């Protein structure tokens, strides 16, 4: 009787025998692969079931909200500093970069957790992303006056 690892390797070999499939790490064509690792980048490979159409609506919506606030703080802050140098512009610019930049990184990092959350939790997090951006944009505009 074969072990699960042997069965998995046989399934991977059978799948790649006649298919052009790119390595998810380096893009190398894995057609005809005999080992459970990419010959180009040596990353371990496994055959798994994935979603045909992953639900990314909430993730993209929150990403857009945070990116708009972050981009606004960067662009308008940089323009304000070069156009009319004022130290008052540095505070909201720095705060926007210090808070919204890491918020963007956390958002991207927690994509899987967001996908597993309930619809109500996903919607609440997206609203929180837009509120966070709106607070910084409002504060930035208030400082610019």
Keywords:
single chain; 145 residues; mainly alpha; 2 domains; 0% strand
Task: Set out the fold topology.
Blueprint: H1 4-16, H2 57-83, H3 87-109, H4 111-116, H5 119-144
Helix pairs in contact: 2-3, 2-5, 3-5
Brief overview, please?
With 145 residues, the protein is mainly α.
Description:
With 145 residues, the chain is an all-alpha fold. 66% of the residues lie in helices and 0% in strands. The chain contains five helices and no strands. The chain has helices spanning 4-16, 57-83, 87-109, 111-116, 119-144. Helix 2 packs antiparallel against helix 3 (87-109), helix 2 (57-83) runs parallel beside helix 5 and helix 3 (87-109) packs antiparallel against helix 5. The protein is elongated. The model has no long low-confidence stretch (mean pLDDT 84).
Uncertain residue ranges: none
Query: Tally the helices: what do you get?
Result: 5
Helix-strand makeup class: mainly alpha
Oligomeric state of the chains in view: single chain
Identify the overall geometry.
elongated
Mean pLDDT over the residues = 84
N-to-C SSE string, H for helix and E for strand: HHHHH
How much of the polypeptide forms β-strand, as a percent range? under 5%
């Amino acid at each position: 009787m074969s072990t699960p690892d042997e069965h998995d390797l046989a399934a991977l070999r059978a799948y790649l025998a006649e298919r052009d499939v790119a390595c998810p790490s380096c893009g190398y064509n894995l057609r005809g692969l005999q080992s459970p690792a990419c010959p180009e980048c040596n990353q371990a490979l496994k055959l798994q079931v994935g979603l045909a159409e992953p639900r990314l609506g909430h993730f993209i919506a929150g990403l857009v909200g945070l990116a708009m606030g972050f981009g606004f703080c960067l662009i308008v802050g940089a323009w304000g500093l070069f156009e009319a140098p004022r130290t008052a512009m540095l505070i909201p610019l720095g705060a926007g970069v210090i808070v919204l930049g890491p918020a963007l990184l956390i958002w991207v990092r927690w994509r899987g957790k967001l996908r597993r959350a309930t619809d109500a939790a996903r919607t609440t997090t997206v609203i929180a992303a837009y509120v966070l951006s709106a607070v910084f944009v409002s504060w930035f505009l208030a400082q610019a006056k």
